[in-house]
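In response to the reviewer comment on reproducibility (Comment 2.3), we provide here a single inverse folding case reported in full, input and output, so that an independent group could reproduce the run without further information from us. The structure tokens appear first.
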């Protein structure tokens, strides 16, 4: 459960530490005091989307920290973050939001990404916002609700596997289907491209070799002059000896005396090594002189070939390797087109099998969904009765549809709010208060299927009043016996039912607006409940009524 929420520089909240308690926690306050900012801070610390506008004016960054207790080391998402709770099951999450838009997230001091934080946060805390009830009006979401309740991920994944295979076959067949004129144009184009590339006789690495040879040919005279000069110095000519001959003479001069002196023998040995190395080098340079056979015709040929490759590269790829790959692809595409009729016949046979597999997997998914729907209907009806909607009928309708990624069923929730009325789509008949209670019932049922320990309701009482408000309060109290509940509310019935009551209060200090969150004792709770009931004018009668409301709520909680 959420033990502590620390907020710094979030909107009008300069700094706040909220120590939540087990059970039912209520947050109340004047409109605009900052109650929803507390919910936004919870969403932010758990990886929700944020904006730089969330940072308090004049501050460079905002910080939100949350401490959760009773966290198991096998909680989904923890392993992916490389984090784990301490030995007492405590998990500390922190997120810093800088003014430049950067985010710094940590779990027990370990840096993590926002996406990792979001994946983990979904298993720690579930936030029901003010507008979540509108999701019930979107019938495309109804199937997702049912699959989530029935835990049908395995059946859905199995279905999607065969459906994706069928969809891929259809895409392949569509790619092979073309009219004869288009087919003829494509074949002519491929033949031309293949012929052009084949005539070029491309060879991997040829462009680098051509570049090297062209540079050599363009500077041929300079290279030949330099190498010839080196050859003359090493080998000499008919009139003068080169370095090799001089080293030979020096070696011969010491040959007769090397045995009489150790230093002379060392010098003679070094001369011998130098002469051998110089001889090998002189032969290499002489061979190189012979290799420099330059001709204008060869340079023209190299330039022409380089120009041909340049033009081909502009059409088929930046390198010869890419052009060869293009040639292979073109050959395969031509072969596919020329054998398209045979391939289509083969794929049509595979498609028939794939459609049967999709039909079978879809039927299995539908069967599982209908079983889950029957149970969900009963669970929702029970919840709605607890919420003073005794005459409401709720049903889940299945209609067949063309197979899609989500199955072969069009699923929608139907209800009848009054006796004698036909079942109709929720969007057509549900009032705001009814929608809020249906969404609360659905959230409660789904929460039982999950490991989330904390449920957050941001003004779940919208459109609810009187007897219905009391029923909503009692339902939240029931839920809070096995899940921690945090609820932002404007209704005294809900606030009175809470085990812990926090007031969000806005004030002004040194010309700046600030908000603080304080936990109320019984006397201040009575004053706050009286304000919620009667507005700014709090009378003794309202205070007495608030006290009675607290006593009744306490008596109800003791029965749970």
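Designed residues, in position order:
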């Amino acid at each position: 459960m959420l033990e502590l929420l620390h907020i710094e520089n979030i909107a009008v909240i300069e700094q706040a530490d909220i120590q939540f308690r087990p059970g039912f926690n209520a947050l109340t306050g004047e409109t605009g005091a900052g109650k929803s900012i507390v919910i936004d801070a919870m969403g932010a610390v758990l990886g929700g989307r944020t904006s730089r506008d969330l940072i308090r004016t004049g501050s460079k960054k905002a910080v939100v920290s949350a401490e959760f207790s009773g966290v198991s080391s096998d909680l989904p998402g923890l392993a992916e973050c490389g984090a784990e709770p301490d030995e007492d099951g405590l998990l500390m999450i922190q997120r810093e939001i800088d003014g430049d838009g950067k985010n710094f997230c940590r779990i027990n001091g370990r840096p993590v990404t926002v996406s990792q934080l979001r994946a983990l946060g979904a298993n720690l805390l579930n936030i029901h916002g003010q507008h979540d009830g509108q999701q019930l009006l979107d019938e495309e979401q109804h199937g997702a609700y049912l699959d989530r309740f029935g835990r049908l991920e395995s059946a859905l994944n199995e279905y999607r596997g065969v459906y994706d295979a069928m969809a891929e076959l259809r895409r392949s067949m569509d790619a092979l289907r073309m009219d004869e004129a288009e087919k003829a144009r494509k074949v002519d184009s491929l033949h031309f491209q293949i012929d052009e590339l084949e005539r070029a006789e491309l060879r991997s690495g040829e462009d680098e070799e051509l570049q090297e040879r062209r540079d050599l040919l363009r500077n041929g005279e300079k290279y030949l002059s330099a190498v010839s000069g080196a050859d003359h110095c090493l080998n000499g000519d008919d009139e003068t000896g080169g370095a090799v001959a001089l080293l030979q003479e020096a070696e011969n001069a010491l040959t007769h005396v090397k045995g009489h002196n150790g230093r002379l023998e060392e010098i003679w040995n070094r001369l011998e090594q130098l002469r051998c190395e110089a001889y090998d080098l002189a032969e290499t340079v002489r061979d190189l002189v012979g290799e420099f056979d330059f001709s204008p015709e060869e340079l023209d040929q190299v330039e022409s070939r380089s120009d041909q490759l340049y033009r081909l590269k502009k059409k088929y790829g930046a390198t010869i390797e890419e052009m060869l790959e293009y040639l292979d692809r073109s050959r395969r595409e031509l072969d596919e087109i020329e054998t398209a009729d045979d391939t289509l016949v083969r794929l049509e046979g595979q498609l028939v099998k794939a459609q049967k597999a999709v039909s079978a997997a879809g039927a299995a998914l539908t069967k599982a969904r209908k079983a889950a729907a029957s149970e969900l209907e009963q669970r929702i009806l029970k919840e709605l009765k607890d919420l003073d909607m005794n005459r409401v009928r709720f049903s889940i309708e299945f209609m067949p549809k063309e197979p899609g990624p989500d199955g072969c069923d069009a699923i929608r929730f139907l209800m009848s709010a009054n006796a004698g009325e036909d079942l109709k789509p929720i969007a057509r008949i549900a009032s705001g208060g009814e929608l809020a209670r249906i969404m609360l019932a659905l959230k409660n049922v789904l929460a039982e299927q999950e490991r989330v320990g904390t449920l957050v309701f941001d003004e779940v009482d919208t459109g609810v009043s009187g007897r219905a408000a009391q029923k909503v309060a009692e339902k939240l109290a029931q839920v809070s016996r096995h899940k921690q509940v945090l609820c932002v509310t404007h209704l005294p019935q809900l606030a009175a039912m809470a085990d812990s009551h926090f007031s969000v209060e806005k004030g002004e200090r040194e010309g700046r607006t600030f908000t603080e969150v304080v936990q109320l004792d019984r006397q201040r709770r009575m004053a706050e409940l009286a304000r919620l009931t009667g507005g700014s004018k709090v009378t003794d009668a309202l205070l007495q009524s608030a006290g009675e409301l607290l006593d009744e709520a306490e008596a109800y909680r003791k029965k749970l």
